[in-house]
Amino acid sequence: MGTPWSTSGKNAKGFVQVKCSDNLDKANTSAQIQLYRSGKWRNQGAKVVSYSTAKTIHVNDSAAKRIGGYHYRTKGTHFGQHGNIFALPTYYSPTRYLVRNG
Questions:
Q1: DSSP one-letter string for 40-101
Q2: Cα dihedral sign for 85, 90, 94, 99?
Q3: What are the extents of the domains in the chain?
Q4: What is the reported pLDDT for 87?
C-alpha cells in the first residue's frame, strides 16, 4: 500500500496493490485517499474500484488536497472469490503530512 504523496501542489495520490497466488473468479479492490481533520479520518474525493481478477491487482487513487496542512493516508479494501468468497481486512497505509497553499 502506497503512502500518499503529492505530485503537484493541489493533489494527493496513493495506491493499493494485492498479490494473489492464483487468478480469481471475481474480485473487488478499492483505494480511497483519506485525510485527518477535526479528530477523524475522512474520505477525500471518490474511491477508485477495480474488478480485475489478475494475480496482481493495482489500484491508483488521486484526490484534491485541502488548503492547509493535513495528514493523509490510503484506505484499501479487497474482496475476492476463487471457490470460496474471502475478504482481506480493511488496511491503511502509513500517513504523510502534505500541505496545499491557497
A1: EEEE-S--EEE---SSEEEEEEEEEPPSEEEEEEEEEEEEEEESEEEEEEEEEPPPEEEEE-
A2: positive
A3: 2-100
A4: 79
Label residue 1 by pLDDT band (50, 70, 90).
Answer: low
Whole-angstrom distance, CA of residue 42 vs CA of residue 76: 14
Is residue 39 classed exposed, middle or buried when 0-12, 13-18 and 19+ CB atoms within 10 A define those classes? exposed
Read off the amino acid at residue 34: Q
Domain 2-100 class, CATH top level: mainly beta
Q: Are strands 48-50 and 96-100 parallel, antiparallel or unpaired?
A: unpaired
This prediction has a pTM of 0.87
- Residue 37, amino acid: R
In tens, the pLDDT along 53-85 reads 998 999 999 999 999 999 999 999 998 877 677
Here the cell at position 41 is 479520518
Rounded distance between C-alpha atoms, residue 102 and residue 94, angstroms: 26
